[in-house]
Design goal:
two-stranded antiparallel sheet, ABC transporter involved in vitamin B12 uptake, BtuC, mainly alpha
């Protein structure tokens, strides 16, 4: 089946539809929970702060649900964009943010912060996690060079090996943690239950800016996807684009891990689904992945809160349970 070329109309309709879907899931996630909130109550609670009858709903929305929705939005969008970029750079359909070991480094950093009990947990845990992700990112980036050139195969293999090493360190640290084993466990499988609006305002703008910067490389991704030599002949500075984009994708992943733990499958499944539905042109694929990833994780977080209510399933479990069958379906379909 031949796809229609990318046009302004197709871009507007696709991104507009994804924005509407994201808005619907965000509103639904704010309304649904152990305390149901109608659309009228939601409107009053958010728009009319002077109404005393909405005080309870306002507290639930602003202190519990809205931070989770916003954090799910920004983590899902960032991981999806990073996954789409890495699949283009490495020309490998299984490439995703966590395969390069960045998440394992972030988890080790978070566990060190938990074990040490330094300062304020809502600040030090994400900070240590981001530092761990950054150090692993630099290590994998250094190991991925051969004779001064960034080699995609060496980068991928280095990421897998470094990730395996730090995963073993995670198991070691988890065994050593006594007082906060549950927190460490939730971090390992991805969790948004302790979402803090302050975390969103710290990482949100950075992830958006980094995603926009990645999107500016879309035309180069289209050419690199056809092969490095072809891209070089067409005037693309392949090594520079790979360095810049890999660092940005790693930066986004480190920020996401620092506030949500290891949420898997988002950076793998969402870009593939968008590529199948909207085509392989990265000028549309990257922004579509941003919006679709946000919608996907908001929806998964809603499921994590409601499927076994009043108990809660970690969102990383939901993304794996939902994402694995979707990916198998996509694999079989195309």
């Amino acid at each position: 089946m031949k796809r229609s070329p990318l046009t302004p109309r197709k871009t507007v309709l696709t991104l507009g539809g994804l924005c509407v879907a994201l808005l619907v899931f965000m509103i639904g996630s704010l309304m649904v929970g152990s305390t149901p909130i109608s659309i009228a109550e939601l409107w009053r609670a958010l728009v009319d702060p002077s109404d005393p009858s909405s005080e309870i709903h306002r507290t639930i929305l602003l202190n519990i649900r809205l931070p989770r929705v916003l954090l799910a939005l920004i983590v899902g969008s960032g991981l999806s964009v990073a996954g789409a970029a890495l699949q283009a750079l490495l020309r490998n359909p299984l490439a995703e943010p966590y395969i390069l070991g960045i998440s394992s480094g972030g988890t080790v950093g978070a566990l060190i912060a938990m074990m040490s009990g330094i300062g304020m947990a809502y600040l030090t845990t994400p900070l240590f996690s981001f530092i761990g992700s950054g150090l692993v990112m630099l290590l994998v980036f250094a190991l991925g060079h051969r004779r001064g050139i960034l080699d995609t195969n060496a980068l991928l293999l280095s990421g897998v090996m470094v990730g395996a090493f730090f995963s073993a360190m995670v198991l070691l640290f988890t065994a050593m943690v006594n007082q906060d084993l549950r927190t460490a466990y939730l971090w390992l499988i991805g969790n948004l239950s302790s979402a803090d609006i302050r975390s969103f305002w710290v990482v949100g703008p950075l992830i958006v800016l980094a995603s926009i910067a990645l999107s500016t490389q879309s035309r180069y991704f289209n050419l690199i996807s056809t092969g490095d030599e072809t891209a070089l002949h067409l005037g693309v500075e392949v090594d520079r684009v790979k360095r810049f984009s890999y660092l940005l994708a790693s930066f986004i992943t480190g920020l996401a891990v620092s506030v949500s733990g290891v949420v898997g499958f988002v950076g793998l499944v969402v870009p593939h689904a968008c590529r199948l539905m909207f085509g392989p042109d990265h000028r549309l694929l990257l922004p579509a992945s941003f919006l679709a990833g946000a919608t996907y994780l908001v929806a998964c977080d809603l499921l994590s809160r409601t499927v076994l209510a009043p108990s809660e399933i970690p969102v990383g479990v939901v993304t794996a349970v939902v994402g694995a069958p979707i990916f198998i379906y996509l694999l079989k379909k195309k």
